[in-house]
């Protein structure tokens, strides 16, 4: 018997008793938990929307006749306007896997520059307003320049500039406030964002659901700004570069994206948006105060995190940030109407932050 024949017999003998079924490479059917995880990964805005909806239902039952009143909901919208605008700026930075601890300081500095230049130094209000926007743009550009050129962590950079901008605010303002009467007499344009619009009366549209609703021009500006930035992120090349830079900067660089220029543009744009928030702040408080908005940094991060934007970059949306700001406003307002103390409001917001980050970590396992 030839060697080939003997080898064939040994091979056949070795295969005796083997499983004759054909190999199947089809993936196992995903479990319900896996499906939920995949859905939340594809639609991250759904989480803050559901949380917001649950909050509205709970507090409408806990405070019947009060929470869902048009006047109360109008107050909630006005309260979250500034935080939402700062949240838009913070979202841009966090999408690139960075963080900006100086957004609140930039806002306060810009609103002091606008008000003091127009009222104390008597410059034309148009020049004072433009100067405030330029200061915001320059502050953001400085943050981006240090991050990109010196290759320092954004957390450390913006922690340092937060102190720098705060010191400049104290120096320029001389710790002096400017009253609403002085603003109205010398720079009424800067107060414009705080003017109220009674939808039922001012719009002249006799719709029953508009009765009792009162909004400010600042709230309308916040919505318009959110739509514009959301369009830029979702429909332009710059937006795709932002997401790509935050998701994997090395891969983005290899694909031809100038990640340094993208980061520089993101921080500069964030600074400009903070300046706009400073303008809205003047209308909100009816004057200029160097002590206003001291918790704005953490509040903006809270809105972004609860809104579903990943702290690791590359995933999130502006609409989610708006939901996050509204969630904070709704829970604080609802708990206050329910008679709970401020400490329990802070406790609830803290729990929401931890839950949001936990869900984000769980969702990210899908793409790991």
Q: Kindly, what is the distance between the CA atoms of the first and last residues, rounded to a whole number of angstroms? A: 56 Å
Query: What's the CATH class, please?
Result: Mainly Alpha
Strand order of the largest sheet: 1-2
Mean pLDDT: 86
**How many extended strands?**
2
Tell me the fraction of residues in β-strands, as a range. under 5%
Total domains: 1
Specify the number of helices. 16
Residue share in helix: 55-70%
Note the overall shape.
globular
Question: What kind of sheet is the major sheet?
Answer: 2 strands, antiparallel
Low-confidence stretches: none
Listing every helix as H and every strand as E from the N terminus to the C terminus, the arrangement reads HHHHHHHHEHEHHHHHHH
Label the CATH architecture.
Orthogonal Bundle
- Rg (CA only): 27 Å
Q: In the CATH scheme, what's the topology name?
A: ABC transporter involved in vitamin B12 uptake, BtuC
Summing up helix and strand content along with how strands pair, one would put the structural category as: mainly alpha
